[in-house]
């Protein structure tokens, strides 16, 4: 199905649909979590789409930034999203708050590369929460936006913490996460 966009595999019809679901050449969906955006397009068009359709997303330049999630006490499921540009690539930083068990909320923080899975293998990210007395660090390779935030959470490829931990590191309901991107 994606031969016109670069896929050169020839598969038996029984394997076709399984491959198409994960094919690197399938169109990219809008990677912005928490929205009902139906946009699809090429990898080259993703940043343009985000800048025009999701103008509230802030983009910071540099390998080392602070991702500020404001008002983490908002009720219900909430997503905070920011972009980080460095090494000639764009990374989507996501903090997701959702209820996991009855009345028990968890936070999930991860980084996605606006790029392919192969490109994502070239990078590492580090998320750090800290106070004078406490430090919480997560290091991993980013996922591609082809995989998305849901897959990162499902595969535990993210920093996970509960509400009590969030409050330990928060300042007046705002949570600052140090984000460092490096090349492998």
Automatic annotation (TrEMBL):
GO terms for biological process: cell differentiation; proteasome-mediated ubiquitin-dependent protein catabolic process; protein ubiquitination. Its EC number is 2.3.2.27. The keyword Ligase applies. Keywords: Ligase, Metal-binding, Transferase, Ubl conjugation pathway, Zinc, Zinc-finger. Pathway: Protein modification; protein ubiquitination. Residues 1-55 form the SIAH-type domain. It is an enzyme of class 2 (transferase). Pfam families: Sina_TRAF (PF03145), Sina_ZnF (PF21361). One of its GO terms (cellular component) is cytoplasm. It catalyses: S-ubiquitinyl-[E2 ubiquitin-conjugating enzyme]-L-cysteine + [acceptor protein]-L-lysine = [E2 ubiquitin-conjugating enzyme]-L-cysteine + N(6)-ubiquitinyl-[acceptor protein]-L-lysine. GO terms for molecular function: ligase activity; ubiquitin conjugating enzyme binding; ubiquitin protein ligase activity; zinc ion binding. InterPro entries: 7-in-absentia-prot_TRAF-dom, SINA-like_animal, TRAF-like, Znf_SIAH. It comes from the Eukaryota. The RING-type zinc finger domain is essential for ubiquitin ligase activity. The SBD domain (substrate-binding domain) mediates the interaction with substrate proteins. It is related to the TRAF family. Belongs to the SINA (Seven in absentia) family. E3 ubiquitin-protein ligase that mediates ubiquitination and subsequent proteasomal degradation of target proteins. E3 ubiquitin ligases accept ubiquitin from an E2 ubiquitin-conjugating enzyme in the form of a thioester and then directly transfers the ubiquitin to targeted substrates. This is E3 ubiquitin-protein ligase. It comes from Mionectes macconnelli (McConnell's flycatcher).
